[in-house]
Amino acid sequence: MDVSSHKQDKFFIVRVSGRLDATTSPEFEKSCLEWIGQGESMFIVDMKELEYMSSAGLRSILVVGKKIKSEGGTLAFTSLTPNVNHVFSISGFGSMFKVHDSLETALKNS
User: Fold this and answer.
1) Contacts for 104-108 with beta carbons within 8 Å, 24 or more apart?
2) What are the chain's domains?
3) What are the φ/ψ torsions at residue 95 (nearest 5 degrees)?
4) Whose CA is closest to 58, among 101, 93, 7, 103?
């Protein structure tokens, strides 16, 4: 898994690629919590290159989401691949978090 980030307008864009599973989700969680600790609170996670997500990845998203919410921020997701979209749908995450088709849409509507 690769995690990269950049600031765009008021949003902190996190790009995740590869696999978000038991091996890689601690890295994702740690990175996001560090960014929150540095004052970032308006997150958009771009998943257009994320091939696979396990329940461990979902747990990491919940941890990050709770922390962002406690800081008064927002967390949205964009560009879910079909496999990740399926995991979001069956887990109920699609109704818990804002999910957008594209980064441009997320930037306008988050």
Assistant:
1) 105/78, 106/11, 106/44, 106/76, 106/77, 106/78, 107/8, 107/9, 107/11, 107/44
2) 2-109 (3.30.750.24)
3) -95, -15
4) 93
Q: Which pTM value belongs to this model?
A: 0.94
Tell me, what's the pLDDT at 47?
Answer: 97
Consecutive sets of 10 residues in the chain, 110 residues long: mean pLDDT of each? 93 97 96 97 97 96 96 96 94 94 92
Q: What is the DSSP code string of 26-56? A: HHHHHHHHHHHHTT--EEEEEEEEEEEE-HH
Q: Determine the pLDDT at residue 110.
A: 80
| DSSP-based three-state secondary structure for 85 | helix
CA separation for the pair 51, 7 (Å, rounded):
24
